[in-house]
Each structure stands twice: as structure tokens, then as C-alpha cells.
Specification:
It comes from Fusarium vanettenii (strain ATCC MYA-4622 / CBS 123669 / FGSC 9596 / NRRL 45880 / 77-13-4). By secondary structure, the protein is mainly α. The protein is 64% helix and 0% strand. The protein is built from 16 helices and no strands. Helix 8 (173-194) runs parallel beside helix 11 and helix 13 (294-306) packs parallel to helix 15.
């Protein structure tokens, strides 16, 4: 689960322009004059990075630190590994009492790594985004240790990271990862809803925990959605879609077995989920076109069946653009009694 995003990050197509056209300068890829060699090997530099640098830069056990994880990724990519070694040889020299000028070992790796880095920026082929972001990180760590600070290079490096992330919408890939995880959970609830109690002990609790984990680990998404109306720039559309679906799944799970949709009294967890769903759905529809997103339309359907508010119900009816889903919504509304409607009854209606 923890590395599920890596496959999406590893190969993602380049935009239809050269990144150089968007970058004012990349002087941070130019090496500085080296100090003499100190005779350290690459294996010594990696060992130093793993056993000294990683523990220094983390509050966790070194083996579990982010820098150890990054090292394990960097070893698999020549560009990132060269830049990691450029940084590590430089740090090892400082640690051993040499000057803060990078030794020859660092200089040579910096040359090789920055050449591969520049080629990657010029390329129109597929990019390994994990390797690129690690390379940005090691370049940053390298230049932050130079004395005095080269402010212009650090500014160019910072601006280049921003251009790269925006060019490939990398900040939205995590949102897509959550979206696809929610699709999987929707299928799990659907199977649970149609199964028997005897065959699925503990399933509901397991699904609840998955939803809670998403809310905890991806809390930034819910903060984006909660501040949707005030965000500048606007909250990404898929963030709003994902949060809307999340709240619909909370309702779907709570009403998937014995508890009917719209049944009174409404459980507190369903009340909260419906309130948050409606708030986010309003932002979503106002933000951009969601007519073709079937699962967002499904989330509106769940809210429309659950709500007792006629204003919300009318807005949902007007906002459901898919003719099939709108027809199902109208069919369920006409069949729903004062005691609500169970998922079993819904399936019978639409089968």
C-alpha cells in the first residue's frame, strides 16, 4: 500500500513542450571547482549516507527513515545515484574535517549526474518522476552545504522544481491514487451489501478502517475540500470529486445491510457524511465539468436518496446529468416510502 503510487509516478508522459522553454536558467547543474581527492570510495560514501546522514536527518530508526527509502530508490537509477554520491562524498569530506569545497570524487559524480539530469529535461520521452524528484532533492542538499550560500542557484533550483511539478501535474497524482482506492472500496461495499452476515464477519469494520486510514493519511485532501470556496488558486477538481465520493461511501456502507437509505432516525455518522457530501458537491459542480464522471454522479444519487431536505433533493436532481442515473433517481424517489428504502430494494428496482 505504501508504494502503490510509485508505478504511477515512474512513467508519466512528458507534456508537448521542452521544459527548457519554461526554465529561465539551470545554473545549479554546473559544478563548482573541486577540492583535491580525499581517496574515499563510492561504497564508503553510500555507507556514510546510510549509517550517519540518514539517522541525523530523521527522528525515526535509520532503516525506516525517508532518506533510507530514497537511497533504495536512487540506487536503481544512474542519474539519481550520481547526484546522491556527489552529495554524500561532499558530506563525508566535511565530516572528516576537510573543507566544504566538494572533493574530486563529489565533483565527478556531480558532472555525470547533472549531465543526465539536463538530458532528461531536454527529452521528449517518458520520464521517471521519482528519479527526477530525488535528483532535485540531492541537488538542493548539495547546494545548501556550500559556503557562502549561492542564493541565485538556490532560487533557480526552487523555481525549476515548481515548473517541473506543474508541467506534469505531479501534485495531482496523489489525488488520483486516492480516487482509485475509493473505487476499490466501493466494489468491496457492493460485495458486502449483497453477501450474508455469516459469510462476512468483520467485513464492515475492515472497510471502515480503510476509509478512516484514507482520511487520516490524506488529510490534506479534506482540508482542500473544506476550504474549497476560499482557495486561491481553485481547489483541484479531482480533489473535490474524491472527497465527495468518500462521503458517499460512508453513507453507502452505513446503509448497505439492514439500515435503509433515508431511514429515521438518521445515525450521527450518516448525518455528518451527508452534510460534508453536500457541501463538497456544491463546490465541485461550481468548480468544473463533472458530467462525465460517473462515480461523482453516483455519489449525488446516494445523497439524493438519503436526504430529507427538498432543496437539496431538487438541486441534486438538476445536477445529475447522466440520463440513466437520473432515471434511477426518479424511480427510487417514487418507490421510496416514509421508512426509506433498503439497498436490496434498490437493486430489485434497477435490475
Amino acid at each position: 500500500d505504501d508504494i502503490g503510487l510509485s508505478t504511477q509516478l515512474a512513467l508519466f508522459p512528458f507534456p508537448s513542450f521542452g521544459l527548457f522553454s519554461a526554465l529561465s536558467s539551470i545554473s545549479f547543474t554546473l559544478p563548482m571547482d573541486p577540492a583535491p581527492s580525499i581517496g574515499t570510495s563510492d561504497s564508503q560514501a553510500v555507507a556514510f549516507h546510510r549509517t550517519v546522514l540518514a539517522p541525523m536527518k530523521s527522528t525515526q530508526v535509520a532503516a525506516l527513515s525517508s532518506h533510507t527509502l530514497f537511497l533504495n530508490f536512487a540506487i536503481q537509477n544512474r542519474m539519481a545515484l550520481h547526484l546522491l554520491l556527489a552529495f554524500s562524498h561532499s558530506e563525508l569530506a566535511i565530516h572528516q574535517g576537510y573543507s566544504d569545497r566538494p572533493p574530486l570524487e563529489s565533483y565527478l559524480h556531480f558532472q555525470h549526474g547533472s549531465r543526465l539530469f539536463t538530458q532528461q529535461l531536454e527529452s521528449f520521452t517518458h520520464a521517471n518522476h521519482i528519479a527526477m524528484m530525488l535528483s532535485f532533492l540531492y541537488l538542493y542538499m548539495f547546494w545548501m552545504r556550500r559556503h557562502p550560500f549561492d542564493v541565485s542557484r538556490l532560487k533557480e533550483l526552487s523555481a525549476s522544481v515548481l515548473v517541473y511539478v506543474r508541467a506534469f501535474a505531479l501534485d495531482e497524482l496523489m489525488i488520483l491514487d486516492v480516487y482509485f482506492a475509493l473505487i476499490t472500496i466501493q466494489r468491496e461495499i457492493n460485495r458486502y451489501s449483497q453477501g450474508s452476515e455469516a459469510k462476512s464477519p468483520g467485513v464492515e469494520l475492515g472497510i471502515k478502517r480503510k476509509l478512516e486510514r484514507i482520511r487520516e493519511e490524506q488529510s490534506f485532501l479534506f482540508e482542500l475540500a473544506a476550504n474549497g470556496a476560499q482557495q486561491v488558486p481553485a481547489t483541484p477538481l479531482m480533489a473535490l470529486v474524491a472527497v465527495t465520493i468518500f462521503h458517499a461511501l460512508q453513507i453507502y456502507l452505513a446503509r448497505s445491510r439492514d439500515s435503509a437509505l433515508s431511514q429515521l432516525p438518521v445515525p450521527c455518522e450518516v448525518q455528518r457524511a451527508l452534510k460534508d457530501l453536500m457541501t463538497t458537491a456544491y463546490y465541485t459542480v461550481a468548480t468544473g465539468p463533472v458530467q462525465l464522471l460517473e462515480r461523482f454522479q453516483w455519489a449525488l444519487l446516494i445523497a439524493g436518496i438519503e436526504t430529507h431536505d427538498p432543496i437539496h433533493r431538487d438541486w441534486i436532481s438538476a445536477s445529475i446529468s447522466d440520463p440513466a442515473i437520473k432515471g434511477i433517481f426518479q424511480l427510487i424517489q417514487s418507490a421510496k416510502g416514509s421508512s426509506g428504502i433498503t439497498m436490496r430494494a434498490v437493486r430489485r428496482l434497477v435490475s
